[in-house]
Design goal:
This is UDP-N-acetylmuramate--alanine ligase. By secondary structure, the protein is α/β, with parallel strands linked by helices. It has helices at about 20-30, 50-55, 85-95, 100-110, 125-135, 150-155, 200-215, 225-230, 275-290, 295-305, 330-340, 360-375, 400-410, 425, 445-455, and strands at about 10-15, 35-40, 60-65, 75-80, 100, 115-120, 145, 160-165, 170-175, 190, 215-220, 240, 250-255, 260-265, 265-270, 315-320, 320-325, 350-355, 380-385, 415, 435-440. It is built from 15 helices and 21 strands.
Length: about 450
């Protein structure tokens, strides 16, 4: 029975290349544990950047054939996608090695530190990164386990989604999509927002209520009504509306090109990011940082140096008057916010989106149509390619073109290109000398290469 991170030393991760798995693997490796793992994407003789970076850290990587597990292994970690038929699972069963899920292990890690858990349906990765950067800038030497790579850590040659500091604070993302958020008992729980994504609102509210109950201190964004309904009087919440009674209020938002300015409790902030949603993220991070002892002026200084995270409004550059931006947006609220954030950059925004999963797309169809249609200006356009299918059982009774037809019926400029590799040849004539081409999508490991290919051909 595993009850503490002190109960094991040699850990094997099945599916270690996944973002959530690689982050925990690197964290435990950084605390002195002996870590190894396998992944279906690891093939001997074939280059793999994730494998290379893990092995540079001293984490041994194997093909997913069972050879990495032996009698000395005392814990095996699996992601939600790993099935009983995987050779490592079968071998661990044969050797009576305990097997736990990634979320269970993260919960054990969270218990071992003064943990700040960042929750909400949007903005978790960015807010976690901003908070980590503030705490690090303030000399508090925090640790982080994130769902995305921080540019500041990637520059060190690492994957960027984890780092172990000498301080007592640990920043983690608390994921509601798989329900694992209810397993954490953080010192501070932070709730950014509640929007329909993966689950119905009433289910999400139950999950976030448990998150609140499990947190010693709970801080919420009062700008979001559903989140605000979970506010409590014991802490200072935050808001970006002047009439809010929250302890931390952001005002005077402005975006000029690729930068935003605002103030928090009259302290000026300036960041090299886009969108009002990033003001909310910075406000959340600064609220938590201030409550653990960092003054707001120091928060502002730290965030002025903030370099962003991988595939979150990542500006790839400007070519022939076209700004190319790559973003992880994948639910209705995120897609709408991503498009809106690009509108101050140029007179025209051409957004492309690849939905992922037939079930999620069917579940969110009307929400995608309403949210995207709401933000599109008369000159803006939305393009989609076919739904990304990751395998497994799925009823393929919906197409991205169904969403496009619904949006077009609302009088918006909407276009469907089934094969994304043909996107640029179809929309090239729609590009102007001053516009933004925004690429949006998640879960598909090929999206980074796709963005690079679009940039090369632009």
């Amino acid at each position: 029975m595993i009850n503490s991170i002190n109960d094991f030393h040699r850990i094997f991760f099945i599916g270690i290349a996944g973002t959530g798995m690689s982050a925990i693997a690197q964290y435990l490796n950084g605390t002195g544990k002996s870590v190894s793992g396998s992944d279906r994407y690891f093939k001997n003789g074939e280059p793999n950047e994730t494998r290379q970076k893990l092995e540079v850290e001293g984490i041994l990587c194997f093909e997913q054939d069972g050879t990495g597990i032996n009698e000395k292994t005392n814990l095996v970690v699996v992601s939600a996608a790993v099935e009983e038929t995987v050779p490592e699972v079968q071998k661990a069963r044969q050797l009576n090695i305990p097997i736990i899920k990634r979320s269970e292990l993260l919960a054990l890690i969270a218990k071992s530190r003064k943990t700040i858990a960042v929750g909400g349906t949007s903005g978790k990765s960015t807010t976690s990164a901003m908070l980590f950067d503030i705490l690090q800038f303030a000399g508090m030497e925090p640790s982080i386990i994130s769902g995305a790579g921080l540019v500041s850590i990637i520059r060190e040659g690492k994957i960027g989604n984890a780092k172990v500091g000498n301080g007592e604070l640990l920043v983690i993302e608390a994921d509601e999509s798989d329900g694992s958020i209810v397993q954490y008992y953080p010192e501070t729980g932070l709730l950014l927002n509640v929007d329909k994504d993966h689950k119905e609102i009433d289910v999400l509210m139950d999950v976030f209520q448990t998150f609140k109950n499990n947190s010693s201190r709970f801080v919420v964004n009062q700008s979001h009504p559903l989140a605000a309904s979970l506010s409590q009087e014991l802490t200072q919440d935050f808001c970006h509306h002047d009439h809010c009674a929250a302890g931390y209020v952001a005002r005077d938002f402005r975006q000029s090109g690729l930068a935003i300015t605002f103030s928090i409790n009259h302290v000026p902030f300036e960041l090299s990011v886009v969108g009002r949603h990033n003001m909310e993220n910075a406000l959340a991070a600064s609220t938590i940082a201030n409550q653990v002892g960092v003054d707001l002026a120091t928060c502002a200084d730290a965030l002025q140096r903030y370099e962003g995270i991988y595939r979150r409004h990542q500006v790839m550059g400007n070519k022939n008057g076209v700004w190319l931006i790559d973003d992880y947006a994948h639910n209705p609220a995120k897609c709408a916010a991503s498009i809106e954030a690009c509108q101050p950059i140029a007179p025209k925004v051409i957004a492309w989106f690849q939905p992922h999963g037939y079930g999620p797309t069917r579940f969110l169809r009307n929400d995608f149509v309403e949210e995207i249609s709401r933000v599109l200006r008369p000159q803006d356009e939305i393009w989609m390619s076919e739904i990304f299918y990751a395998g497994g059982t799925a009823t393929k009774d919906i197409s991205a073109n169904d969403l496009i037809q619904d949006i077009r019926a609302k009088g918006k400029n909407a276009f469907f290109v089934e094969n994304r590799n043909e996107l640029l040849q179809h929309l090239r004539s729609h590009l102007t000398e001053n516009c933004v081409l925004l690429l949006m999508g998640a879960r598909d490991p090929g999206l980074e290469a796709f963005a690079t290919s679009v940039w090369n051909e632009l």
